[in-house]
Amino acid sequence: MATADIRNNVEKALEEIRPFLVSDGGNIKLLSIEDSTVKVQLEGACSGCSVNQMTLKNGVEATIKKYAPEITEVINIA
């Protein structure tokens, strides 16, 4: 799949996730896609939340992989 298509699919996944994060006072921003790794930044209440790693792996990463199966990892850059 082309890089632009992967980026579009990742953005679609983030749009699906974003309302849940915003309802908890947070947000998420796509920083980059390098090889099969997506780098994001959790913002607002999500950046200091004690369960943000669980949210990242179980929510964000799972949803991104659903839209873009070639992605193997999602990393939060603080």
What would you note in describing this structure?
This protein has a 3-stranded mixed sheet with strand order 1-2-3. Helix content is 53%, strand content 27%. The radius of gyration is 12 Å and the shape is globular. The mean pLDDT is 88. The protein has 3 helices and 3 strands, in the order αββααβ. The longest helix has 21 residues, at 3-23. It has helices at residues 3-23, 45-48, 52-67; strands at 26-34, 37-44, 73-76. The chain has 78 residues and is α+β, with helices and mostly antiparallel strands.
Keywords:
3 helices, 78 residues, alpha+beta, three-stranded mixed β-sheet
Blueprint (SSEs and pairs):
Layout lengths: L2 H21 L2 E9 L2 E8 H4 L3 H16 L5 E4 L2
Parallel strand pairs: 2-3
Antiparallel strand pairs: 1-2
Number of helices: 3
Share of residues in helices: 40-55%
State the strand order across the main sheet. Answer: 1-2-3
User: How many E strands?
Assistant: 3
Through-space gap between termini: 29 Å
Largest sheet: 3 strands, mixed
